[in-house]
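Review this:
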Amino acid sequence: MYLQSMPVDIQEHILLQLDSPICLVCASTTCKLWRRIIAGTVFLKRFRSLHKPPVVGYYHQSDQSPASVRSFKPSPQVTTAIASRYDSLDHFLPLAWLFTGTVKDSRGSLLLVEIATMKEDTLRQHLYVVEPLTQQSKAIAVYKATTPAIPCEIQAFLLDGAKPGEIGMSNFRVVCLSKNGTVAGIITQDGPIREVKTGNDHGKYMGYLGSAAGSMYWYTKPRTVFAFDKTTAEFSSSSLPDTDDFVQPTISTKFAVTAGRDGQARIVFLAGDTLKIFARPKPRSGDDWVLEKSVQQPSAVTLGVPRPQRFTFGRSVPLC
């Protein structure tokens, strides 16, 4: 009787606190309502986002000097033998990895590694997809800097392969953005780069905000948001409200992207001591963002919205 009188959203919140898929299956046998809640697509997406799989460990490195501080920290539950596989990239990657290599992204059991080399006074950036556990690597692209000795600001990210939810050395995609953000490239394990227009015709730098609700998000001044749909591999653009909030020089450090309880993306922005949450009333291409909620925070406890990293720092590698 008590459960029947409890609002459904409260019951959903309780079920989301379960820390095991096994417990979730057991809970689904309790009653028809809980079975219907747990079987819902939105609920399952939220559950997966809250309860990440175990991780092998974390790669840590500095953008300024990757080789000198690059390290791998295994999780306590990982055996020494498995951890050593992830800490031994030096043994099967090109020698240049020791001096210029950086881990740009990770997904599943794979890493996306960037290695820079100099040839005829021109900096070249090479991308490798790496599987540390099997010590396999595959070169997938080479980029050339427009100015000698100055690195390109190529952004690159790992995605699942053609089959959603599956990724491996024979099934992956890589998304790369050009320095000026006007063109993106989609690379698969066995195909050439397929160019995709981002819609950023002005060539303004696109700051990566994060990933949520099946899409990746970038921001350009003064208030444009670009979204990349991971399923369709297409970009769309939308706008934030026309206010004075988005004119600060360090605007990109105050954004974060997350998913709401309805499974749709939200943009969280820190304006002074106030967190502003923006939503799209109709989550379709071209719909602009509106202010959904403002949350006032005492300045003494305001820590700021975590800055999304363009380069990997503390990226987790799930157990495979």
Notes: The longest strand covers residues 110-119. Residues 240 and 289 are 5 Å apart (CA to CA). The chain has two domains: 2-48, 52-318. The helical segments are 2-5, 8-16, 21-28, 32-39, 41-50, 66-69, 80-86, 97-100.
